Amino acid sequence: MTNNTPVQAPASAGTPASESKPARVKKIVILGATSGIVLEVQRQLARRRCELLLVARSPQRLAALQADLLIRGASQVLTYSTDLSSIPQHNGLLEFACRKFPDFDTVLLAYGSMHGQKDSESSIDVLLEELQVDFVSAVAILTLFAAELERRRTGCIAAITSVAGDRGRRSNYVYGSAKGGLSLFLQGLRSRLHPAGVSVITIKPGPVQTPMTDGLPNAAQFANPQQVAHDIVGSLERRSPDVLYTPRIWRYIMTAVKLVPESIFKRLPL
Amino acid sequence: MYKPAWNDQVPEILKAAAPASLLPFGLGRSYGDSCLNAGRDLIDCHRLNRILGFDESTGVVRCESGVSLSDILRVFLPKGWFLPVTPGTSFVTVGGAIANDVHGKNHHCAGTFGAHVHQIALHRSDKGLVFCSSRENPEMLRATIGGLGLTGVIAWADIQLKRVGGPWIDSESIPFHCLKTFLDLSHESNDRFEYTVAWLDCFAGRNLRGIFFRGNHAANNRKDFHPKSGPKLPFELPSWILNRFSVRTFNAAYYAVHVAKKRRAIVAYDPFFYPLDSIRQWNLLYGRPGFLQYQCVIPEKNLEAFEELLDRVGRSGLGSFFVVLKQFGSAPPAGMLSFPRPGLTITLDFAIRGERTFELLRSLDEVVEKSRGALYPAKDARMSPAVFEISFPNWRDFVPYKDPKMSSSFWRRVTGLP
Question: Which of A47, A55, B119, B302 could lock onto B133 through a cystine, CB 3.0 to 4.6 A?
Answer without folding.
Answer: B119
